[in-house]
Design goal:
Penicillin V Acylase, Chain A, 264 residues, globular, 38% strand, alpha+beta, 7-stranded antiparallel β-sheet, 5 helices
Length: 264
């Protein structure tokens, strides 16, 4: 489970600004955000399947993915985290890659995928859920959006709260630079859970959905601690300057670092 809030082509300083919480089992091997071996991809890495939840490239491509909350999953499925990696390594446009994904979408468990080309100012959203419906591909419009574990901008309580808080915080700074670390602490550490269970998605057990109903997730399970184990903030300025900040758990201690680069 993850949640992301972002503003796209609607801010005077930032064509793109993203905050994303990654929720996963704390014992799942993971590499923090860094440049990959080829020196082209910057992002975190799942050391079990080899994919990523969020990454970008020197050429101005960016992708992130969330799982769709569902009660049943395919026993044998392709790794969803491989989809962002494939896009970042390809030369296809976001729409061309999305159309390619459609052909094999039934081989994956539920996903929401955002594909971005900052040079062409193109952002595409593709999802293979709900089951039985045509695969969803849409161009993302300028403005503020939230992506959690249902379709883009689904009005889940935590998504609505995060969207409103993000909008208010951006308004507080107006046309000034936004202090990304402050945004992370103020918005992405929110542990407030849904106050009305009737507004939960009713996909899994009410107890599990309640535990997942906060922006920042902490839940004990028979398989170990599950919850938010990293928060990333990606800002892109109009001059092509990218800043990638991450605060992540490493051996149960929170660490943080920032990597900046110029889009080529």
């Amino acid at each position: 489970m993850c949640i992301a809030v972002f503003i796209w082509l609607a801010h005077p300083l930032y064509p793109f600004l993203l905050l994303l919480n990654r929720d996963e089992y704390h014992n799942r091997p993971t590499k923090a955000i860094s440049w990959w071996e080829d020196g082209e991809i910057l992002g975190g890495r799942d050391e079990v399947a080899g994919g990523t939840w969020l990454a970008c490239t020197r050429r101005g491509r960016l992708a992130f993915i969330t799982n769709v909350l569902e009660s049943l999953s395919l026993p044998v499925a392709k790794s969803r985290g491989d989809l962002p990696v494939r896009f970042l390594k390809s030369k296809k446009s976001p729409m061309e890659f999305a159309e390619e994904v459609i052909k094999e979408a039934d081989q994956y468990n539920g996903f929401n995928l955002i594909l971005t080309d900052l040079h062409s100012k193109t952002m595409i959203y593709v999802s293979n859920r709900p089951k039985g419906e045509p695969i969803s591909i849409q161009e993302v419009s300028p403005g503020i959006h939230v992506l959690s574990n249902a379709k883009l901008d689904s009005p889940w309580p935590k998504a609505r709260r995060l969207s409103q808080n993000f909008k208010e915080l951006l308004g507080r700074y107006g046309e000034k630079e936004v202090p990304v670390k402050d945004m992370v602490e103020e918005l992405m550490k929110d542990t407030v859970k849904a106050d009305d269970e009737s507004k939960l998605p009713k996909v899994c057990s009410p107890d599990w959905e309640f535990k997942l109903s906060s922006v920042f997730v902490e839940a004990e399970t028979p398989l170990g601690c599950f919850g938010t184990r990293s928060t990333a903030a990606v800002s892109v300025k109009a001059n092509g300057e990218v800043s990638f900040y991450e605060k992540h758990l490493e051996k149960e201690a929170w660490k943080e670092h920032t990597i900046s680069y110029q889009i080529e």
